[in-house]
Amino acid sequence: MLKTIRADCLGRMVLGSGVLLAGVDPSGCADAGAMTALLESAAAGDAFLGVTTGGTTVRCVPETKTLTVAGIPGAAEGCVAVTGWDIRLTGALHSWNDTALRLLTGGAGVPAMAEEGETLCWAGDTPTGPVAVVLRNAVNHAGLSVTAKPDEPAALAFDFRARWEDGEALPCAVYLAEEA
Fold first, then answer.
1. What's the pLDDT score for residue 157?
2. Whole-structure pTM over 0.90, yes or no?
3. What pLDDT shows up at residue 38?
4. Does 40 fall in a domain?
5. How big is the chain by its Cα radius of gyration, in Å?
6. By the 8 A CB rule, do 113 and 79 touch?
7. What are the DSSP calls for 24-53, one per residue?
8. Residue range 78-116, pLDDT digits in tens
9. Beta carbons within 8 Å of 173's beta carbon, 6+ residues apart
């Protein structure tokens, strides 16, 4: 069974190890087997960007403003409007390819993640089945930042943020699949 977690419920979710993929969206998968097959196939192909080893976070929090009615005190008490979303996928790649480097630096030759329909997907596993976090219209805000210590592998930081405009569907989803 494939479950969707409403993105507006996510304040901050910390993820384990996984892979970062471009252009993958498991929303059409009927079950855990189909989702696993899709993610494994994508990770072995051109969609693969890199590997994370844990500590990646996803955040999806609404930005709101309090509503008021001019001249009528208390008329809109408790009413708020969503004016935007803070949608982020942050972490570090501990293994990456040249496409990931170009994506993180905004270099040429990489499909523009900001184009309609383009997706960025972090995929991992849970004891009950695969999990995927999908962002649409994602842009890296961290620039290129490599952290390296003597005798330790280097890490390439990322901070992808999804762009949302009023009236559009929320550009973030988390998919959990449970094995039957």
1. 84
2. no
3. 92
4. yes
5. 18
6. no
7. --GGG--SHHHHHHHHHHHHTSTTEEEEEE
8. 788 777 777 888 888 888 877 777 777 664 444 444 444
9. 4, 5, 7, 27, 133, 134
Cβ pair 36, 82 in contact under 8 A = no
Question: Which of 84, 50, 70, 68 lies closest to 161 in space, CA to CA?
Answer: 84
Element (H, E) at 128: none
Q: Which residues of 70-100 are buried (b: 16+ CB within 10 A; e: fewer)?
A: eeeeeeeeeeeeeeebebbbbbbbbbbeebb
Between CA 43 and CA 99 the distance in angstroms is: 13
Which is nearest to 92 in space by CA: 132, 40, 140, 146?
A: 146
Average pLDDT, consecutive stretches of 10 residues, N- to C-terminus, the chain (180 residues): 53 76 88 89 89 84 79 74 81 82 60 56 84 84 76 82 74 78
Would you say residue 146 lies in a domain? yes
Q: Per the structure, how many domains does the chain have? A: 1
Q: Quick count: other Cβ atoms within 10 Å of Cβ 8?
A: 13
What is the spatial distance between Cα 52 and Cα 20, in angstroms, rounded to a whole number? Answer: 7
- Asked, for residue 117, whether it belongs to a domain, the answer is yes
| Residue ranges making up the domain that contains 117 | 2-61+87-177
